[in-house]
Write a structure and sequence with these properties.
The structure holds two protein chains of two kinds. Chain A is built from six helices and three strands, in the order ααβααββαα. Chain A is an alpha+beta fold. Chain B has an eight-stranded antiparallel beta sheet with strand order 1-2-8-7-6-5-4-3, covered by helices on one side. In chain B, β6 and β7 form a beta hairpin. Classes of the chains: A alpha+beta, B alpha+beta. Chain A: It comes from Pedobacter caeni.
């Protein structure tokens, strides 16, 4: 498994999270994104590559420039993974509660 | 609708906390964790072993309708304080996932209500996130199996 392509691995990095927040408001070129960080340009490029590989960012050819924009669909997937897990526990606990209420009546 | 089960999983951290308030006296809530037959009912799994004591072991196994084992997990109990606390490790068998440590704290709210605080610590942030993604997978599996049953009957 290539961990780099894992969405959750991708957002575990603070710089990559900052990039996602930046691009969330408007699509930007790699240069414009890099200008917001003290980090070396190749490092930012590497982060952009990782984010693109895991589909959190999409590239768009705009004349001679390449713009990066947020892939909202993939971002939703990230936000949603916590909710199914919570629901699974909620269902289990609801069941526990029902079973024990009946147990009490015995 | 009010969410009775709260999940707190901060981004970039390797643990998570699940809190739930029950419409049950503390003793009954604890019993649901203590008695193998009751655990089997609400967890939907078979309890192969559950030694409720320090250094005791536990093992759960879940099978599909055809009797194939789809999930097996085990661990060691580190602390067992009736109506208060259970500390245990959890490891999914035949999986690449490493063991996690789980702290269950049981609290009395009123005579008729109680609270469970479940704190799970994983080895890494990515392991936590993967386990959360995987967490509901066995449930999906079972839904799939049920679907399979329905389809088989149609044949």
């Amino acid at each position: 498994m290539n961990l780099r392509r894992d969405v959750f691995q991708a957002i575990a990095d603070p710089t990559r999270r900052a990039i996602l927040i930046l691009v969330a408001t408007q699509s930007m070129t790699a240069g414009a994104i890099a200008a917001n960080f003290d980090t070396a340009r190749p490092t930012v490029s590497k982060h952009l590559q990782i984010l693109t590989e895991c589909e959190l960012l999409k590239q768009e050819q705009n004349g001679r420039e390449v713009h990066y924009h947020l892939n909202a669909k993939k971002m939703k997937e990230v936000a949603d993974f916590i909710e199914p897990f919570r629901q699974m526990w909620e269902e289990r606990f609801n069941k526990l509660e029902t079973i024990m209420k009946n147990y009490k009546k015995k | 609708m009010e969410r009775k089960t709260k999940l707190n999983a901060e981004e970039g951290k390797q643990d998570l906390v699940i809190t739930r308030e029950f419409d049950l006296p503390l003793e009954l809530l604890f019993k649901a964790y203590e008695e193998p037959e009751i655990v089997e009912q609400w967890m939907g799994t078979k309890v192969l072993k559950l030694e409720n004591k320090k250094h005791g072991g536990w093992q759960f196994e879940t099978s599909d309708a055809q009797g194939n084992v789809v999930f097996r997990a085990n661990g060691v109990i580190h602390e067992f304080v009736p109506n208060q606390k259970i500390t245990r490790t959890f490891e999914m068998e035949n999986s690449p996932f490493e063991a996690q440590i789980e702290f269950f704290e049981f609290e009395k709210i009123t005579e008729e209500t109680s609270r469970l605080i479940m704190h799970i610590v994983y080895r890494s942030v990515s392991l936590r996130d993967q386990m959360m993604k995987m967490g509901f997978a066995p449930g999906l599996n079972m839904a799939h199996n049920r679907l399979q049953n329905v389809v088989n009957k149609l044949k």
